[in-house]
């Protein structure tokens, strides 16, 4: 199954298996609006918009938002949050590698956990540049995984590799350097943390997310190897964390690389 289609399968559990909440998204929206010096006519595009976690506050505040996603199910989850699609929101099901908009269409283009999913990242960035208005902002963001959760996933990944090798070596990703790309185009990069917040889950809860195969690291393994890895990992967790009810807590961050032509 293609990893892109996989989002159709996990759309209904996507939000609960992540660590971004509506109230955090509201605070991040405040930060973004101030950073880009928004006015009521500022327009936003989010390719790979998913369930709308990042831009929902902008839509609710009346900004013009366009979201593109290859997954119909992810987009449906987004529209369900709004009881119908308001006039200031356009949702398009399409491959975002080629943006079907005229040049200079948007004031702000936002991508979150997205650039690594397109097949030709340089072409994609060139498209972003093309549709940005002069003086517009490209914001390449991610919610950094809380370290305790990252450690949990690392342990699982090690067991998964043991259980699945040598049949399915881990997928290789191209080296993507968005900063270099935009620097070469003359953009001024700026890094900031828009928000830091505390995330806490029990081990059993995190295990349930893995069982639902909610993350990319769970997608490239046969069912049999995956089940073996889960069993071995549950035993590991009992020993490592002392109990499946143990809380794992650490800080998440919303980081933004902003690119702006000066
Ligand atoms: C990790 S999710 C991120 C969703 C959202 N940006 C967020 O931060 O919650 C990646 C999203 O990109 C979408 N996607 C992946 N490749 C795509 C492509 N080539 N064109 C459009 N959407 C794509 C997936 O369907 C998925 O909804």
Can you describe this structure?
The protein is of the alpha/beta class and 262 residues long. The chain has a single domain, classed as Vaccinia Virus protein VP39 (Rossmann fold). 38% of the residues lie in helices and 26% in strands. The chain contains 9 helices and 7 strands. The chain has helices at 3-10, 22-35, 56-60, 72-80, 121-131, 147-164, 178-184, 203-211, 223-241; strands at 43-47, 64-69, 89-93, 106-112, 132-144, 187-202, 247-261. A 7-stranded mixed beta sheet has the order 3-2-1-4-5-7-6, with helices on both faces. Helix 5 links the parallel strand 4 and strand 5 (132-144). It is globular, with a radius of gyration of 19 Å. It starts with a helix and ends with a strand. The model has no long low-confidence stretch (mean pLDDT 93). The structure holds S-adenosylmethionine. Residues 4, 7, 47-50, 53-54, 68-71, 74, 95-97, 112-114, 117-118 line the site of S-adenosylmethionine (SAM). The site of S-adenosylmethionine has 21 residues, from helix 1 and strand 2.
